[in-house]
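Design review, sub-item: ligand-bound model
Attendees: FS, YL, KQ
YL presented the inputs for the zinc ion complex:
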Amino acid sequence: MRSATLFGLLPLVALACNGGSPSAAPAAATVTSRAAVKPDGAKAPAPEGIDATRNAARKLAGDILVGGQTMKTLTELTDTCGARLTGSASYTAAAAWAVERFRSYGVNATTETLSLEHTWVRGEARGKIVAPREMAVHVASIGWTPGTPPGGLRGDVLKLDDVSLDAITRRKDEVKGKVVYYERTAEKKARWMAHPLTRLAEAGAVAVITRGGKASNVLVASSCIGVKGAPCPGPAFGIGLEDGATLERLLEQGPVTLELASTAAMGGPAEVPSVVAEIRGREKPDELVLVGAHLDAWDLATGAQDNGSGVAQVLEAARAIRALGTPPRRTIRFLLWSGEEQVLLGSRAYVKAHAAELDRVVAYLNTDFGAGTPQGWAPTGFRRRSTATRMTAPSGRKASPR
Ligand SMILES: [Zn+2]
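KQ shared the predicted structure:
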């Protein structure tokens, strides 16, 4: 999961889905003229724009609250399609399912593909402390890392607190032939542009093992794939929090030896679909409001939170807006991305393919914070926060792409 904008449905309606007649006045004029008084003292008739927007918002909120299908949609996605690792058969099935879902709502939908250089198959992973005493540990292969030799590998553990390029270069003689262990927070401290797993493998580590921060030995999936889709050259594993803590305590006492095995394997290239659906606008069809979430999910579970909940929100927004009967003022494009967990590969491919129309994108509303009560908007990627706030104001004042 990556930080992104949480959108609530009502602001979406206010921004993009004025339910009034096609002749409704622009919302900006509506706000200022509502209080206007005619010279003869009579109140000017209330323009229908803002009221129509509010009525549309009420209908949408009511529809979703009373007859919403979000949970049903999420259950179907997670139970039927399951895990959605980018490039896997289950991901492709989920994309086809989402296209069908949009179409069942009466929303045009298709796919656009990302050319992925390497797919990846997790296989099975196991780990064991063999000295100073035997103890099985919870491990999972890190995405887009290769498996171990058949039968596994064995090595003494070297704990690193600093995985910066300088530190690895300085300690390369120690790294060589070792199983290197570090906490994942060290990656952020090092401010890597390339992944430390790659640098450690190049320095001769036989394997790398990283500790996440989730209690009860819950394993946190992550990827070693680079922005160009290059896989990691050496085996690497995540280890549970408590097992990692045990490992650290043993290391304080003396040498620790680990055995690690993985049948992870790199696959060939693949064309991976992202889903693109659209409801054409009635007043400003050339202006685009993008509403998106990533469809791919790590395969250690079914990705209900990250980001099945976001996918269900986007589908539900499409369903409810289409069911309203009146097209939105601007064109709304719904996007379900592939490859988000592999450094945004799907959305990067989309931006590249659609570069010519980016100036017509009024807003991109992304959801990737999991389920729960919507708490508002978190503007990201704007030069000025006030601009983002103005864009999401219920008055529907004229939006600026900057
Ligand atoms: Zn996510």
